[in-house]
Structure to design on (755 residues):
């Protein structure tokens, strides 16, 4: 069953344009791009154990270079259109070679800070180099046609993206299973031992950094190809944190985990951003909750459930149901609280209160009108929080101990003494 | 003779910035830039002091540390409207220390078993949540947190530039803070136990000290220092939801350059970065000029030639960090990797 899952997913993705409307298909193109970006990012994290906090640089650089290549085609250069994202990939790879050489001098927290610094460095230069990168206004170029393929319709773009994403993911899959992938994991676990075996570990880490940057560059190239434009805001920290958040939510330890996370958050952003201005806060809270209570991400939870089933045990459905309801209640309470606070701190609210003469005008959340200071509202929020945390009681304990034991085994050392 | 001629023309020279006595004007400008750089450096130090102490002693890199600085500014702004400036600064420091204590005991402690990566991710998430909560409560634009009237006077003048008292105050607070922490850690019994707890936590625990409490206290004090810095600096620089990000990355650079856990290193790195940035802002040359100076016609990119050095002053700290990593990976004052 699990073995055929990739085939099923690809078939579903192939048939998708017939099943959904244009708006959703548009969102799916972004999902595919975000998924490839996250998978490339996770090569660095999942395989080499290095967490980059500045991957947007390579994504954005890939996008910029793809547009520059498209502009060159418009001016008469010949370059096969299907290989355009490769221009972004090569650009990301080369930049990644330089940046990776610096960043992988150190590991852990230092590595993280160097990636942040390199991102700031590149961003500052790119933002001032208007003649090449186009500043805030950005640069644009039309999608060049290729043979019989016009590549103008959304469906064409979707299939174009799908082919590249599948190729990219397949590449990552074979890389992971190759001897190189094994050595890279060796560097993650026991760098000293690998270097005693005669490998140049710094060169290896630089290479894996560059490949990861290259895949991110391909994803950036796909985004540029889809939008037919790009600008320097893509170099900002938000695009670095998005991919990290996707990876954490999906789970770095499972091959397709980051792609799942990317799909979830992209669709979440696509739909929820229209409903509330506080969706970034909800994303942040979700991220913190996952870090606290599901350190291996959502795919980690799925793997745990599968291991339970394989061991011949049954899943504890009443427990899962109880915790699920608890989580939903807590989330509802949080949303209610945030939306009401957000409404009443706005100056508009007090202007309304003054003009209508009502002390506390009602705020609409979940389609219901809530009077902020009313006892019923307060009681509802308190009730949701209270009941939710009651149902969730004890949820973190055993799961956390299991994960800690696993991580201790993987890294070969116990957690720091409290 | 030259001196006499000069003194007669000094006033005019200030007005235009040119003339025979440009040297004196240049000296004044140099002094002003130096002082501004030192004050900015001291501000950066106020925030990085807590970060480097916590990092060195607990191995936690707190991404949300600059958020504590932001909370300090907003707390002082909010409470200052009711209780006045000086009380608000104190309240801000205490409130942020409380937030730090909450973060350490209820959040960080839960993920400690997974190791430093998970702690790093948690503080990264907190950074975003705090920024969004601030936006929720105070809006996405800067708030009007200003220096009180009573403190708006000139401390002294250099040439024609007036140096505001408030900058002197910011620098003074940071210096006092440095000496207090340094003295506490070096000369008091508490400092002795804290330093011992960092080196050999289990031994100190066996000797009957509450190591867990020491770490929590340390985290709270570090957060409180950042809050204090925010309360003081927030009125001079814009108090906006972006302030944590703006200062945060600089502060990380300071910790790396200064060396892990070293207070002296952090002070040196902060001052170095502050002064360097301040001087770079005053340079009017472009990349093209530099290339001409080394004897080439152009960088090869027309756009790059026209980029001014001053516009990339903010990049210098990062460039410095990369260079330092090659030359001295443990940082200026660090002895550990």
């Amino acid at each position: 069953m699990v073995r055929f899952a990739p085939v099923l997913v690809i078939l579903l993705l192939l048939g998708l344009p017939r099943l959904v409307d244009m708006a959703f298909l548009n969102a799916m193109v972004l999902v595919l791009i975000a998924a490839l970006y996250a998978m490339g990012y996770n090569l660095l994290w999942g395989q080499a154990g290095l967490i980059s906090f500045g991957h947007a640089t390579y994504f954005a650089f890939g996008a910029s270079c793809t547009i520059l290549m498209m502009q060159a085609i418009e001016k008469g250069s010949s370059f096969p259109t299907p290989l355009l994202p490769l221009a972004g990939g090569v650009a990301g790879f080369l930049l990644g070679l330089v940046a990776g050489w610096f960043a992988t001098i150190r590991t852990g927290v230092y590595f993280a800070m160097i990636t942040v610094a390199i991102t700031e460095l590149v961003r500052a230069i790119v933002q001032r180099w208007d003649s090449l990168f186009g500043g805030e206004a950005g640069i644009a170029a039309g999608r060049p046609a290729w043979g019989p393929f016009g590549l103008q319709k959304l469906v064409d773009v979707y299939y174009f993206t799908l082919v590249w994403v599948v190729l990219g993911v397949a590449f990552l899959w074979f890389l992971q299973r190759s001897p190189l992938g094994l050595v890279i994991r060796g560097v993650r676990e026991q760098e000293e031992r690998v270097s005693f075996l005669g490998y140049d570990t710094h060169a290896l880490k630089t290479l894996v950094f560059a490949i990861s940057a290259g895949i991110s560059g391909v994803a950036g190239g796909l985004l540029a190809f889809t939008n037919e434009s790009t600008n320097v805001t893509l170099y900002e920290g938000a695009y670095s944190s998005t991919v990290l958040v996707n990876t954490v939510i999906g789970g770095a330890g499972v091959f397709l985990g980051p792609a799942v996370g990317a799909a979830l958050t992209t669709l979440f952003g696509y739909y929820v951003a229209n409903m509330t201005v506080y969706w970034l806060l909800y994303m942040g809270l979700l991220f913190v909750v996952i870090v606290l209570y599901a350190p291996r991400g959502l795919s980690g939870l799925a793997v745990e459930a599968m291991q339970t089933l394989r061991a011949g045990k049954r899943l504890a459905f009443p427990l899962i149901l109880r915790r699920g309801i608890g989580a939903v209640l807590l989330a509802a309470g949080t949303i209610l609280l945030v939306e009401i606070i957000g409404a009443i701190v706005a100056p508009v609210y007090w202007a309304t209160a003054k003009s209508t003469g009502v002390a506390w005008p009602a705020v609409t959340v979940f389609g219901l009108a809530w009077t902020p200071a009313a006892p019923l509202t307060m009681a509802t929020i308190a009730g949701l929080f209270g009941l939710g945390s009651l149902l969730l009681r004890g949820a973190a304990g055993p799961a956390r101990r299991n994960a800690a034991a696993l991580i201790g085994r993987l890294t070969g050392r116990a957690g720091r003494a409290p | 003779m030259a001196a006499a001629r000069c003194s007669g023309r000094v006033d005019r020279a200030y007005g235009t910035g040119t003339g025979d006595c440009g040297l004196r004007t240049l000296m004044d400008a140099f002094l002003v830039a130096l002082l501004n750089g030192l004050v900015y450096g001291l501000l950066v130090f106020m925030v990085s002091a807590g970060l480097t102490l916590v990092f060195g002693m607990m191995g936690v890199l707190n991404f949300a540390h600059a958020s504590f600085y932001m909370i300090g500014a907003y707390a002082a702004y909010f409470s200052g409207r009711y209780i006045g400036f000086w009380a608000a600064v104190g309240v801000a420091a205490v409130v942020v220390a409380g937030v730090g204590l909450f973060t350490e005991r209820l959040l960080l402690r839960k993920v400690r078993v997974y190791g430093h990566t998970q702690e790093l991710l948690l503080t990264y998430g907190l950074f975003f949540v705090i920024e969004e909560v601030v936006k929720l409560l105070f809006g996405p634009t800067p708030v009007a947190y200003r220096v009180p009237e009573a403190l708006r006077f000139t401390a002294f003048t250099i040439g024609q530039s007036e140096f505001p008292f408030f900058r002197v105050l910011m620098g003074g607070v940071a210096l006092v803070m440095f000496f207090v922490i340094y003295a506490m850690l070096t000369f008091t019994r508490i400092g002795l136990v804290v330093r011992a707890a960092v080196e050999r936590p289990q031994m100190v625990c066996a000797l009957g000290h509450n190591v867990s409490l020491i770490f929590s206290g340390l985290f709270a004090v570090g957060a409180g220092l950042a809050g204090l810095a925010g309360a003081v600096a927030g009125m001079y620089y814009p108090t906006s939801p972006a302030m944590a990000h703006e200062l945060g990355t600089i502060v990380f650079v300071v910790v790396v350059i200064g060396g892990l856990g070293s207070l002296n290193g952090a002070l040196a790195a902060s001052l170095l970065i502050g002064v360097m940035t301040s001087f770079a802002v005053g340079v009017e040359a472009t990349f093209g000029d530099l290339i001409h100076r080394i004897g080439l016609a152009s960088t090869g990119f027309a756009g790059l030639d026209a980029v001014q050095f001053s516009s990339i002053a903010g990049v210098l700290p990062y460039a410095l960090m990369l260079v330092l990593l090659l030359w001295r990976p443990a940082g200026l004052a660090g002895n550990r990797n």
